[in-house]
Each structure stands twice: as structure tokens, then as C-alpha cells.
């Protein structure tokens, strides 16, 4: 078996539920009292798809305007992006164009893109039509999903879609920057690596990065 290691950045307006969506998937938990992300938080998990292990290194970035200038440093070498908006907040949908423009300005290699409409449990307060969101996703070459981090509806499909997209990217593009290993050697490679993909320990770890002074939490979690 082979292992694909892909870097995933999570982007979007403040308060749309980016962190809640990641934590719901990685830790299978939800809290209504999550502190806004400062800089970025790091999570890691694995999925097994068609005898291929896909290791996702997830960078959950801050959506606050005062941290937006920091975002490009987290885009470097990204293989996939989740662009998240709140279906009950029109402004969060309209702001996605800025996030996508900035992302494409900073990433040259092919990427897997997924637009995520969060808070589907509040559909009665919807300000963004589903068809409009689907059309926008298609216009930027992205897939589209709606989910509820609170009720754990559709969250797993989002990350499964990203993982499958990375597998397709590996097969269809020669200029990707995905890391591919034989699964039997992956643990030794990761243990000796100086890069971000250190380990899957199921506990909090500190990752030695130059951005520690601005990062809210570099958290490595095991989801599978």
C-alpha cells in the first residue's frame, strides 16, 4: 500500500465554523465556546481509501481581518483547500472570492478545492441559495458540500471528498507536490522528518515552527 501526505488549508470569514468543522471530524466533538483562532492551528489525521492511506495535515487559519496578512505563510505547499462560509451569513459567502484569489496568488501547483457551506442545521435562516453556492464552486473548479458541525451532518463527506481529490490529483497531474511513500516505511520517514508531518500520536504536541509566536495551537490529533 502507499501513503499520500497532503497539506490542507482551511479558509474563510471569522465565525463561520472552520475550527468547529475540523474538530468535529478529527476529535468527534463540538463546543459552542471555541476561542477564535489566532494565526493557525494544526491537526493531522488519516483516511484509508481503496487501499491507499491519505494523511491530511490540516491548517485551520484565522478568519479575523487583523490576521489576514499572515494567511499566505500557511498556503505554502498546500495541496488542498477548504473554503468555508456560513449559509446564514451572506457576507461570509461574498468574502470567499478574496480568499480564493489570495490562495491562487500564493500556490502555483494544482490543488483540490472544496467549498463548504456550514451551519446547514440553520437552513431556515439561509441567506445563500444552494444552487448559487454550487455554481460558484464550479466556477473555481471546486466541489461543494453543506454540513453542520454542531449536529455532525455531512462533515465526514467533506474530508472524504478532499482525500479522494488528492488521490485523483496524484493520478492526473505530473506537477503536483504531494508526498508519496510506501506505507510500510511511513512511520520511520515521519519520525525522522524535519518537516511539519511529524506524527499521529492522538495527543497535543508542540511543532517547532518559526510561527509559534502567532499560532494559536499546533495540535496533532488522530482521527482514524
Automatic annotation (TrEMBL):
InterPro entries: P-loop_NTPase, Small_GTP-bd, Small_GTPase. GO terms for biological process: intracellular protein transport. GO terms for molecular function: GTP binding; GTPase activity. One of its GO terms (cellular component) is endomembrane system. Keywords: Nucleotide-binding. Gene3D superfamilies: P-loop containing nucleotide triphosphate hydrolases. Transmembrane segments: none annotated. CDD domains: Rab (cd00154). It holds the Pfam family Ras. Belongs to the small GTPase superfamily. Rab family. This is Ras-related protein Rab6-like Protein.
Amino acid at each position: 500500500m502507499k501513503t499520500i501526505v497532503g497539506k490542507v488549508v482551511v479558509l474563510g470569514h471569522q465565525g463561520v465554523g472552520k475550527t468547529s468543522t475540523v474538530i468535529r471530524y478529527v476529535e468527534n466533538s463540538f463546543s459552542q465556546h471555541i476561542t477564535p483562532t489566532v494565526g493557525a492551528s494544526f491537526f493531522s489525521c488519516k483516511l484509508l481509501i481503496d487501499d491507499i492511506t491519505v494523511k491530511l495535515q490540516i491548517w485551520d487559519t484565522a478568519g479575523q481581518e487583523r490576521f489576514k496578512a499572515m494567511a499566505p505563510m500557511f498556503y505554502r505547499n498546500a495541496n488542498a483547500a477548504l473554503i468555508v462560509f456560513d449559509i446564514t451569513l451572506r457576507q461570509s459567502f461574498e468574502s470567499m472570492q478574496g480568499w480564493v484569489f489570495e490562495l491562487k496568488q500564493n500556490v502555483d501547483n494544482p490543488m483540490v478545492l472544496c467549498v463548504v457551506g456550514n451551519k446547514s442545521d440553520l437552513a431556515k435562516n439561509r441567506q445563500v441559495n444552494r444552487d448559487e453556492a454550487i455554481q460558484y464552486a464550479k466556477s473555481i473548479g471546486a466541489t461543494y458540500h453543506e454540513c453542520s458541525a454542531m449536529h455532525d451532518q455531512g462533515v465526514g463527506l467533506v474530508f472524504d471528498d478532499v482525500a479522494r481529490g488528492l488521490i485523483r490529483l496524484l493520478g492526473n497531474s505530473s506537477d503536483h507536490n504531494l508526498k508519496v511513500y510506501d506505507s510500510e516505511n511511513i512511520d520511520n520517514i515521519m519520525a525522522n522528518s524535519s518537516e511539519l508531518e511529524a506524527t499521529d500520536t492522538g495527543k497535543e504536541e508542540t511543532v517547532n515552527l518559526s510561527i509559534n509566536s502567532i499560532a494559536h495551537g499546533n495540535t496533532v490529533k488522530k482521527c482514524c
